[in-house]
Write a structure and sequence with these properties.
The protein contains eleven helices and five strands; from the N terminus they run E-H-H-E-H-H-E-H-E-H-H-E-H-H-H-H. It has 259 residues and is an alpha/beta fold. It has a single domain (8-246), classed as Rossmann fold, CATH 3.40.50.1110. Helix 2 crosses helix 10 and helix 5 (96-111) packs parallel to helix 7 (145-162). One of its GO terms (biological process) is lipid catabolic process.
């Protein structure tokens, strides 16, 4: 292990997670934001569903590990919501009830890792069905918003049941202007614009969560802080707090409710 020790933030999920470290991706942006304060660890597996994740949960997140993550951000559901394969064999489809049960087990396992391990679930986002057909052809036949939406709704309901923070990507992305044409590279995976939405939603949850200790980037100490000692100069800590300011949503004003 490289020292000194930092909080670990693990991204766990399917291709939405695996591809999050491309240029402008949400995982890469989080790694940049937390570059002096926490380690962002990628555990993304393209093509996986919640059933696949459950099979390796004990290996990916062993309960006897010396160091447990401070935060795990989880995404599954898009592949689960695909229609069953016509042959009835294989495929990514997981029935909604099983998906919900799998995600419950994943959440409960992660919460049990330590008293200070926090969990955020990302809901399945919408998709551009026409773009999927153009890019993938029959390989993704049947993948649709109509089938995916119940999985997003079920996951957010589950979050409220098991005290896990949930991020509603289904609606957050659709609130953007021209989202169908600006948020996807292939109808499924995120452009830099969509990734920026994901990052802002994550930072909002982390900032507003009543977690002790806080995992907000401004609450974590900068590793090996440096000050040039020059009068009227910005310290490194000041620079770290300001360079990603555009991604921080403004705090609620007087009388504004927090969701």
């Amino acid at each position: 292990m490289v020292g000194p020790g930092r909080p670990q933030i693990v991204l766990f999920g399917s291709s939405i997670v695996q591809y999050s470290f491309i240029d402008g991706g949400w995982g890469a942006t989080l790694a940049n934001i937390y570059s002096r304060t926490a380690d962002i660890i990628l555990r993304g597996y393209a093509g996986w569903n919640s059933r696949s994740a459950l099979k390796v949960l004990d290996q990916a997140f062993p309960k006897d590990a010396v160091l447990q993550p401070s935060l795990v951000i989880v995404y599954f559901g898009g592949n689960d919501s695909m229609p069953p394969h016509p042959s009835g064999q294989g495929g990514s489809h997981v029935p909604l009830s099983e998906f919900t049960d799998n995600m419950r087990k994943i959440g409960e396992h992660l919460l049990s890792l330590s008293d200070k391990t926090r969990v955020i679930f990302l809901s399945p986002p919408p998709m551009n069905e026409r773009q999927i057909q153009v890019v993938f052809g029959d390989a993704m036949r049947g993948r649709s918003n109509e089938l995916c939406r119940p999985y997003a709704e079920a996951l957010l309901n589950l979050c409220r049941e098991i005290n896990v923070k949930g991020i509603d990507l289904w609606n957050a992305i659709q609130q953007q202007d021209d989202w169908l044409n600006t948020c996807f590279t292939d109808g499924i995976h995120f452009t830099a614009k969509a990734s920026e939405i994901v990052v802002k939603e994550i930072l909002k949850v982390v900032r507003e969560a009543d977690w002790k200790p806080s995992l907000h980037r401004k609450a974590l100490p900068n590793e090996f802080p440096f000050d040039s000692g020059l009068p009227n100069s910005l310290s490194l800590s000041d620079l770290e707090l300001t360079r990603n300011k555009k991604l921080e949503p403004p705090p609620p004003g007087p009388g504004m409710a927090r969701l």
